[in-house]
Amino acid sequence: MSETTVEVTPQVLVYGAPPDRAWTVDSDVNVRYTSSSHELAQALTTQSPQLIICLHAPPQFDGIEAVKAVRRFDARVPIVLTTHHQDTMTNLQAAQAKVTWSVELSTDDSLPEELFSVVTDASEWLEKQGA
After folding, report:
1. pTM of the model
2. Where is the signal peptide, in residue numbers (predicted)?
């Protein structure tokens, strides 16, 4: 009997605003944006992402609460928390919610474009992990 290997496309699930323009990640990674905690929870029931990126930009995007929702489904998936403002309270909440990495966004571009930059870098990293 011969063995067959099925290659699985790595998936990144992003909680946050998609870029203003129709940009795509230039890699073999499937990226899906969600704009609410409810959508994020639904996506977790149908997908098994290798990485989740959560934007923390209250009041529209509460990344800390999104991380907590993810952790109820999966305690092991790596989560990147992105934010414009890393202060002590945000860092403590991120640690308590078991964030894997935290990335401070610059304020040079719009929030969606800054988030897309992190998505691109993370997708490239994830793609190299599978190589």
Report:
1. 0.85
2. none
